[in-house]
Task: inverse folding
């Protein structure tokens, strides 16, 4: 393709991958990467695990290979604050504007935060600067939480998804006096992966001393007279004491700045795209900020696949086929690697094929009502998971069939 300018908004996994693949595919034009954070591209999954535990430092999170040079104009520390999709012009927080032949939106998602139940006024009428609850979305977030997780703390984690469970496991490993996970479902991950997987995950955590409060949500964080958080109030009226509160209650697409862009946003705020990430002529989106054919992107592997397709499709439109690979996600908790691959639509039956629910080494296979294997979940069953993924390629998707999230 002729030399041109491609502007990528977001300097995380998706933005970096788009830039890397563009160069690998021979694109010789200008690439500008706009990032709200001052950091070069870094990997976020370790923030709630190895980084939080102190096993990985900032440099260990880097996505860039040693000595890698992509000839990119990095504009970091100045967020995009507006977009005119019709002219493909970006407005940046530093007051500058940027017009490009192609724009790729890769701003990801921002963690949901917990509200204060009551915000007391401190001595001079100034509200406390520290948020009511910690989140894990950036290096700074994780570093702040790591400093708070000193031995002897009492920790409450709101939310029992992967991030919440990973934080709970890390807090227990760092010597917290107590760790409580508040789960809206009757058991962690039950709605996503079923009763058997949920029981195995819960047993793993309870063996490490983590306590679960289920069937309710955290409605807010209560502060003491000095403005420091000291517990949470649950939706059912109960209160739990805590010196550290962590919000792991999901994330929302970072697309608020696109309200007047001319792009269509879904009900949850994601950029609506077709099966190749096209949101408007010359404008594409990928990763957590996007919804391809009404399918949210919620996992690292899928985000990277989308980024690779977007880059290849810009260089050679239509040449690369959209991936329909089954979802793949992993998590490390209490030293156990949990992996899931496949696609669940509801109503599948899970069977224990190896290991056990109570021993932290279960291998589950999910079958639909025809007996077809559609997914698998393993805990410390890396070889079995690798074998299952190799022998269960993605089924063909009928044209126009949107994948259930």
Result:
């Amino acid at each position: 393709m002729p030399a041109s300018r491609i502007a990528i908004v977001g300097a995380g996994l998706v933005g970096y991958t788009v830039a890397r693949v563009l160069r690998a595919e021979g694109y010789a034009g200008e690439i500008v990467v706009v990032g709200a954070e001052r950091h070069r591209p870094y990997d976020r999954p370790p923030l709630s695990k190895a980084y939080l535990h102190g096993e990985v430092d900032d440099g260990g999170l880097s996505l860039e290979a040693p000595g890698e040079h992509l000839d990119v104009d990095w504009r970091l520390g100045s967020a995009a604050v507006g977009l005119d999709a019709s002219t493909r012009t970006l407005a940046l927080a530093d007051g500058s504007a940027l017009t490009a032949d192609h724009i790729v939106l890769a701003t990801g998602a921002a963690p949901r935060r917990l509200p204060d139940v009551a915000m007391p006024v401190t001595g001079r009428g100034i509200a406390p600067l520290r948020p009511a609850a910690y989140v894990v979305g950036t290096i700074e977030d994780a570093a702040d939480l790591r400093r708070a997780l000193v031995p002897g703390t009492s920790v409450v984690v709101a939310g029992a998804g992967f991030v919440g469970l990973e934080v709970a496991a890390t807090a227990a490993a760092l010597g917290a006096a107590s760790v409580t996970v508040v789960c809206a479902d009757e058991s962690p991950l039950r709605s996503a992966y079923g009763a058997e997987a949920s029981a195995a995950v819960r047993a793993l955590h309870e063996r490490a001393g983590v306590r679960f409060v289920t069937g309710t949500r955290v409605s807010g964080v209560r502060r003491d007279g000095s403005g420091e958080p000291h517990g949470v109030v649950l939706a059912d009226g109960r209160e739990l004491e805590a010196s550290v509160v962590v919000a792991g209650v999901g994330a929302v697409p970072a697309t608020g700045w696109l309200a007047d862009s001319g792009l269509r946003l879904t009900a949850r705020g994601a950029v609506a795209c077709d099966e190749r990430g096209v949101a408007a002529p010359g404008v594409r989106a990928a990763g957590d900020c996007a919804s391809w054919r009404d399918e949210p992107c919620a996992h690292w592997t899928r985000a990277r696949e989308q980024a690779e397709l977007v880059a290849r499709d810009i260089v050679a439109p239509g040449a690369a086929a959209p991936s329909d690979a089954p979802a793949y996600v992993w998590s490390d908790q209490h030293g156990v690697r949990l992996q899931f691959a496949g696609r669940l639509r509801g109503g599948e039956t899970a069977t224990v094929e190896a290991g056990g629910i109570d021993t932290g080494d279960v291998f589950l296979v999910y079958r639909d009502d025809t007996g077809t294997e559609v997914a698998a979940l393993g805990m410390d069953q890396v070889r079995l998971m690798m074998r299952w993924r190799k022998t269960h390629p993605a089924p063909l998707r009928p044209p126009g069939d949107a994948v259930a999230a």
